[in-house]
């Protein structure tokens, strides 16, 4: 994958969350590959916690310039702020929290690591840059075998699933409902018969069915049940 240049002043968009989720998923896959090749598993069952990142930050620091690590940590912080302000579908809550925990813990661990004077003086640093090339592809110089020794395969798999789920959600355009469509869904979810909804909203029964067919197309579902489920999942209905 080609590098993406992201500066600290760039607009905070869902594209940034998709990028860092790709990095997280790539990291998890690399750990799993190391386990498949015979690397012993470690004791961290949740490689998205502060404890894991405090143990792993030195491994990253041995391979990557301090400036690069600090910049990635800043991007992680930006992504976490984006996610805080997003509406989270009910089925994604756990995945969402795992990814946010990874971003916050990684960013905090890097800041703590480089706040130590002895670390600052001993770590290699690169020239300052207003924009550093960051892509979903992870640098090959990282010792994934050492990182794999810190965590379990099940933990890595759970982290990958969460990152992929969040990325897929952020890449999918959120449908926008008109007020009338919202009112239809609210009444359908409450169990009101279509004929009563039509009368209440000023539709004929036939035009109500046509409006609902257009709504199901917009939501990408075949019927009423799928429409209510989809609207609830993406946060269009409480």
In short:
This protein has 238 residues and is mainly alpha-helical. The protein has helices at 14-36, 50-61, 66-84, 93-115, 117-122, 144-148, 153-171, 179-189, 194-201, 205-219, 224-233; strands spanning 4-6, 132-134.
What would your notes on this structure say?
The protein has 238 residues and is mainly alpha-helical. It is 63% helix and 3% strand. The chain has eleven helices and two strands; from the N terminus they run βαααααβαααααα. Strands 1-2 form a two-stranded antiparallel sheet. 31% of the residues are buried.
Distance between the termini: 38 Å
Strand content: under 5%
Query: What is the total tally of β strands?
Result: 2
What is the overall number of helices? 11
- Helix and strand sequence: EHHHHHEHHHHHH
* Average pLDDT number: 84
Helix content: 55-70%
Query: Which shape, going by the Cα principal axes?
Result: elongated
Largest sheet: 2 strands, antiparallel
Which structural class do the helices and strands define? mainly alpha
Return Rg in Å.
23 Å
**Widest β-sheet, arrangement of strands:** 1-2
Uncertain spans: 1-11, 126-132
């Amino acid at each position: 994958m080609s590098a993406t240049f992201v500066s600290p002043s760039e607009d905070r968009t869902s594209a940034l969350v998709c990028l860092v989720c790709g990095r997280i998923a790539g990291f998890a896959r690399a750990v799993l590959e190391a386990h498949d090749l015979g690397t012993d598993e470690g004791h961290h069952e949740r490689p998205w916690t502060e404890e894991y990142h405090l143990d792993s930050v030195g491994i990253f620091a041995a391979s990557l310039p301090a400036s690069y690590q600090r910049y990635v940590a800043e991007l992680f912080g930006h992504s976490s702020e984006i996610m805080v302000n997003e509406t989270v579908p009910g089925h994604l809550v756990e995945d969402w929290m795992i990814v946010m925990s990874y971003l916050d813990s990684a960013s905090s661990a890097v800041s703590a690591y480089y706040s130590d004077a002895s670390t600052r003086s001993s770590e290699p640093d690169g020239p300052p840059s207003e924009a550093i090339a960051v892509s979903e592809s992870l640098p090959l110089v990282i010792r994934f075998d050492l990182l794999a020794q810190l965590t379990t395969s099940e933990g890595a798999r759970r982290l990958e699933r969460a990152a992929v789920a969040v990325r897929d959600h952020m890449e999918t355009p959120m449908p926008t409902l008109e007020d009338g469509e919202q009112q239809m869904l609210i009444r359908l979810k409450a169990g009101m018969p279509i004929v009563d909804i039509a009368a209440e909203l000023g539709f004929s029964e036939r035009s109500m069915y046509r409006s609902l067919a257009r709504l199901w197309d917009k939501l990408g579902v075949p019927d009423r049940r799928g429409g209510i489920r989809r609207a609830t999942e993406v946060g269009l209905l409480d």
